Every structure is written in C-alpha cells, then in structure tokens.
Amino acid sequence: MLERQKMLQQDPEVRKSNFNEVALGFTKEQAVEEAKRCLQCKKPSCMKGCPVEVKIPTFLNHVAKGELDEAIKEIKVDNALPAICGRVCPQETQCEQACVLSKKGASVSIGRLERFLADYERKRGVETPTLPEPTGKKVAVVGSGPAGLTAAADLAKMGHSVTIFEALHAAGGVLIYGIPEFRLPKDIVHAEVEYVKKLGVNVLLDSVIGKIATVDELLSEFDAVFLGTGAGLPAFLDIDGENLNGVYSANEFLTRVNLMKSYKFPEYDTPIKKGKRVVVVGGGNVAMDSARCALRLGAEEVTVVYRRGEEEMPARAEEIEHAKEEGIKFRLLTNPVRIVGDGKNWVTHIECINMHLCEPDDSGRCKPAPTPGTEHMIEADVVVIAIGTSPNPLVPRTTKGLEVSKHGTVIAKEDGATTKEGVYAGGDAVTGSATVISAMGAGKKAARAIDAYLKGK
Ligand code: FAD
Ligand code: SF4
Asked: 84 in ligand 1 pocket by Cβ < 6 Å?
C-alpha cells in the first residue's frame, strides 16, 4: 500500500536521440492497483490541491473497480484537457502533495491515473456531453492556450456561442509551440482541441487580435470577451553578444523545434542551428525543455547555466531528473556576463562568473551575487536564453480602459473581471508565467463569471 506503481519509461540512452514520448503510461492492471491505494477519505484533502476541482476520490473509486468509462466521464465534468494535465501538471506540488498518503509514504499517483484514463478514452473514442439549449449569447476568447480552451469549453457547455481567436496557425498555446513532443505529443494536444471544437467552439487561426480587430471592435459583435493571451514575450540578459548568430530565445528555439518541426528539416521547411556545444541559461521547465531538445537535435554536450543552486531551480523535479539521466550537465551558481563571437558574428563562447547566495529576496529565495575574480569561459556554438517571459503588450495597447500592472500583466479580479466591462482575463496574461493547471483554473472561474454577467445582461 505504501509503494506506488512504477510507470514504464524509455531508456535514457535510447530516448536522448529521439523525440518520442519519454513516459509510457500505466497498464490497466497497474492503474487498478494504484487506484486501490486511495483511502476514499471523507474529507479528501487532494481535491483542495486541484485548481479545476476534479472529484478525485470519485474517479479513483471507479478505476479501482475497473469502471474506466465512468471514471473518465467523472474527470471530464471538471477538466476538458485530462491527457494534457496528466502529463505536464506539477501534481507533486498540488493534488498529490495534498493527498494524506504523502505524509505516510507516497501519495496516490493521481496525475498518472488521469493520463491513463484520457489515453484509454482516446483509443475508445471520445464522447461529447449533451449540450443545453443555446442561450443566444456570444463570447470571444482571445488565445487558445489552456486558459482560453478551458474558458471556451465551459462556456460552450453552458450554452453560449464561443469563438476562439488564435494568433498562430495551430491551437494550443504553449502546449503546442513550447512543450516538446517527448513530454507532450502534439497528437494529444490536437485531440483535446478537437474535443473543445466538438462542444461547438469555433476556432479561428492566424487571427491576431490587436491587428485584425481590436477588443473594442470584438465587443460590438460579442457579448463578452475572455483574454487568455499568455506571456509569450521573452526576456533577455541584456549583455554583450546577445545578438550574435547562434543565440536564441527559448521561445524561438522551442517554437522552431516543436511547432515548425525543424528537427525534420528539410522535410519541414524551418531550419535550426544544431549546436555541438549548447549552453542553456535558466533553471525552469523552459530551460530543461530547451536543453533536452538541443540534445535530441544531436549536440555532443549540453550545459545548463543557472545563477542559483539546485534547490532553487523552478523546474519540476522530474524534469531535472530526466535531464540528468540523459546526460545534460549543470553549472549551478553560475551567471553569464557576455557572449563572445568569432569575429564573423557567430557565437563561440559564453563568459560566466561564479555566484554565491546571500539573504532571501522578495520571493523568499536566496539572492545570488557574483564572486569577483571567478570569470571563466564556456565553449558554445549555440546559446539558448530561458530566463522568463512577460505578456505581449499588443492587446492592452490597443484596448481602451484595460489596465495593466507595471509588469505588463492584465489587472483582473479573482473571477477574471478586468477594469473594462464585459472583458475578462486569466492565465499567464494575468499572473505572468505560471502553470497549465493554474491557467485552466483561471479559465474556469472566468467562464462562471462571464455566464453570470451574461445572465444579468
Ligand atoms: P498560453 O499557453 O501562452 O497561450 C496563449 C495563446 O494566446 C497563444 O497560443 C498565443 O499565440 C495566443 N495569443 C497571444 N496574443 C494573441 C493575440 N493578440 N491574438 C490572438 N491570440 C493571441 N506548465 C506546467 O504546468 N507544466 C509544465 O511542464 C510546463 N512546461 C512548460 C514548458 C515551456 C517551454 C513553457 C514555455 C511553459 C511551460 N509551462 C508548464 C507553463 C504553461 O505552459 C503556461 O503557464 C500555460 O500554457 C499558460 O496558459 P495560457 O493559456 O495562459 O497561455
Ligand atoms: Fe485518496 Fe489521497 Fe484523496 Fe484521500 S487524499 S481521497 S487517499 S487521493
């Protein structure tokens, strides 16, 4: 009872040179055994850790009895994207951390069971719920990331007519352009987007709001607008040499690899520089994804340079572990000071300095400071900068009365209401870079608030 079922994974030596999914999922027998570990608590603490309020013990009880159809139906009431959440949500800091069993040994593998059920449903054929009578109200959703997809799905299930406007040529937000194939296969994202479309949601691609129409113009055609535009504007180090050839923002690097499939160039027409010695700057999931993509593109050596220690790294523990297993090197307490070129505009080295930790900063983490005299060079023909992102200012700049914070995030109340009537917002556009499930939670809350607003209108 104390031990979790082990999920099969691709061997690190094999997987580091392919883009196939690393984790292979549970068998039905494993899923049933794992679900039987749940104590069916009267006051289930796990649910408090789930931002979209999935009824965890109920679905686990169905799995334990082998009732897979009932189990997935139960999840889908609250979560339109279970195959995605089951793969990329940081359950270890949410529902699984809150599970009582985590205090005695290991929590129930809630995320892996969610993934198992979603995969089961995809193979079996996805059912759509019966929709209510149309309300006659129209809602525009800007952005098709997890926040936009969740808001759209919930609003459609309430009977409203929903249109998503997406800037890119594919729907899914970071799920489609950022998170790599080996963690989240794109077929799965496409399948979950298809489910949202089956609920009646209209998805318009290549449609940049702020260019093809403003939010004010949308409000003349729609009764309400939800902004789920994310935080896709990359931050840079602001050091010498950052504009040399071979230096990428993680956004550009990952978009080329994932969305444009540059690892299949020239079959797909977007090239990428495949470095021999790649340095990735940053310590979050984005840095781990960039490093592991660079390795799979054929790099001989990939080094993650991070200015704090391992304990402070914001990436999921599992992702750091996977990166290490695959042979990614880590230079912790190290910070770049300049990027050096070969005189013909191509990067050859990155100069770094050692750091040490001082007193905690505003976020409660220890502030890193440079140690004078420790400057050193690291060879690199590709450098990827993965030190964070902020919201794109296009929508706020083109919308009258929509207020933003000094960090560029849209100011919104707990229910997503912004400073402009009829306009709601959620996800990374409001919080800055966060998680898939927090974006989904925000989409869900905003859908409820929009529904109430439309009923009062
Ligand atoms: P996004 O997913 O960013 O979607 C916003 C969408 O809006 C985009 O498709 C964009 O093209 C569109 N858009 C923007 N402006 C406009 C406009 N003007 N008009 C029309 N469309 C517009 N979180 C986790 O929980 N687990 C992970 O393992 C994880 N790994 C990550 C790895 C990477 C590489 C990255 C970048 C992020 C990762 N995250 C992870 C964070 C997570 O993906 C985000 O928090 C989440 O996607 C935010 O969802 P969102 O819907 O708010 O925005
Ligand atoms: Fe089951 Fe853990 Fe939730 Fe209790 S807290 S109901 S054991 S998953």
From this structure: no
